[in-house]
Amino acid sequence: MQAAIPRLEIRNLKRRYDGRAVVDDVSLQIMPGQVTCLLGPSGCGKSTTLRMIAGVEMQDSGSIYVDGKLICDTNFRVPPERREIGLMFQDFALFPHLSVADNVGFGLKTMDKAARRARIEDLLERVDLKRFVDGYPHQLSGGEQQRVALARALAPRPRIMLMDEPFSGLDNRLRDEIRDHTLTVLKEEDTAVLLVTHEPDEAMRMADEIALMRDGKIVQQGAPYNVYTRPLDRASVSFFSDANVLHAEVSGALAQTPFGRFLAPGVPDGTPVDIVFRPQHVRIDFDRGGKGPVPTATDGTAARATVARARFMGNESLVEFVMDYDGSTLKATVPNVFLPQPGAVMWLTIRRDRCFVFPVASRSTS
Ligand SMILES: Nc1ncnc2c1ncn2[C@@H]1O[C@H](COP(=O)(O)OP(=O)(O)OP(=O)(O)O)[C@@H](O)[C@H]1O
Asked: Which residues form the ABC transporter domain (predicted)?
């Protein structure tokens, strides 16, 4: 069987500004109907990558292919308007003087009138805005305008959609609804989507695949579940959620901590390690006359702590503890409305199967 050809493939893209590599050897493949999120902190080079694919900026080296055909390298360049790429940005602007129908039909000028109208109505139906077909942008809410922008970008049946933080101008409740709706429409069109975002929640909600970007490089790539549950390093854990860290040193492939010993297979003796875990993987137990829970094989030793702060956050509460053993702070989230008082003494255990043990090059840089 012939291997499937990616809808979009970029190979070894590089771009420097003022001698600094802002996109540093980035390669990616996206299949038709697949949503890939380029996720990373502000300034890591996401938008620059997108602009090179769109053709509004030229790479210093590397190449871009659509359906297996070269569209751009350092010698050859298909202009942006002939790349069949749809664009949606945060500051998407509808044309204020054009009706909703004419906004959506803007890229369909060569189509005959009846087919054009049919495509416009079909898309407006799918974004649930058919009733506004003859209205004007100023009559629509922000969320409705966003949906018109999506319909406009999809109208010419682009082979690829590039989206740069397209939902960041919307308020929270509306954003979730529009994200879900947008995803449904994009999947129906079988477009390959590259979505740029700095919000892990957005990437987890939208992506089939996440490409985690840092300092111009893609450092990890995979399904959201894999990227979240098998992070590359401490920074990757922290990027997705709060993270607690214990410092230890390895001896005999074990790292000794106040929570008991952690396996560190293959790590040489004397290596400093960070044991990283998320607040939701801390278990809390009451103090029973100065005693903690009986240790279990899976959760190791319990450590005593005092509640410093507890915040109710709706579905869960976030509790900050000061640890007896060294005065450091650990965070735990607990479901529902358990809200301990500051000063309460409790015992913490950590879910061993949810901890990550990362060797650190030197303690001073950790
Ligand atoms: N035209 C330019 N000239 C000089 N430096 C630039 C230019 N465009 C971008 N940069 C720099 O390149 C780096 C990457 O920018 P880019 O916009 O790609 O990042 P980003 O990850 O999309 O960030 P954000 O999420 O804040 O948009 C930044 O440090 C930025 O200042």
From this structure: 8-240
Q: Which atom of ligand 1 is nearest to the CA of 198?
A: 25
Continuous segment of H or E residues that includes residue 194: strand 192-197
Domains parsed from the chain with CATH numbers = 8-238 (3.40.50.300), 241-365 (2.40.50.140)
Q: Are 253 and 265 in contact (CB under 8 A)?
A: yes
pTM score: 0.87
Closest by CA to 135, choosing from 109, 166, 96, is 96
CB-based contacts of 122: which residues, under 8 Å, 6+ apart?
Answer: none
- DSSP characters for 13-40? EEEEETTEEEEEEEEEEE-TT-EEEEE-
Q: Is residue 295 very low, low, confident or very high in pLDDT (cuts 50, 70, 90)?
A: low
pLDDT at position 180 is 86
Among protein residues, the one whose CA lies closest to atom 29 of ligand 1: 43
What's the rounded Cα separation, in Å, for the pair 22 and 365? 23
Q: What is the ipTM of this complex?
A: 0.91
Q: Which of 29, 27, 95, 87 is CA-nearest to residue 59?
A: 27
| Residue 207, CA distances (Å) to 18, 126, 180, 264 in order | 33, 21, 11, 32
- In terms of DSSP bridges, do strands 35-39 and 192-197 run parallel, antiparallel, or are they unpaired? parallel
The CA-atom distances, in angstroms, between 204 and each of 146, 210, 363 are 21, 8, 32
Tell me: the pLDDT tens digits for 263-281? 999 999 999 999 999 999 9
Q: Which residues contact 362 (CB under 8 A, 6 or more apart)?
A: 272
Instruction: From 14, 20, 22, give the residue whose CB has the most ligand 1 atoms within 8 Å, as the site to mutate.
Output: 22
- In the chain, the amino acid numbered 240 is F
Token pair belonging to 299: 């959760």
Question: Which band of pLDDT confidence, cut at 50, 70 and 90, is reported for residue 127?
Answer: confident
Helix, strand or coil, per DSSP, at residue 280: helix
Mutate to test the pocket of ligand 1, among 48, 57, 202, 215 (most ligand atoms within 8 A of CB): 48
Query: Atom of ligand 1 at shortest distance to CA of 213?
Result: 21
Instruction: Report pLDDT for 12.
Output: 98
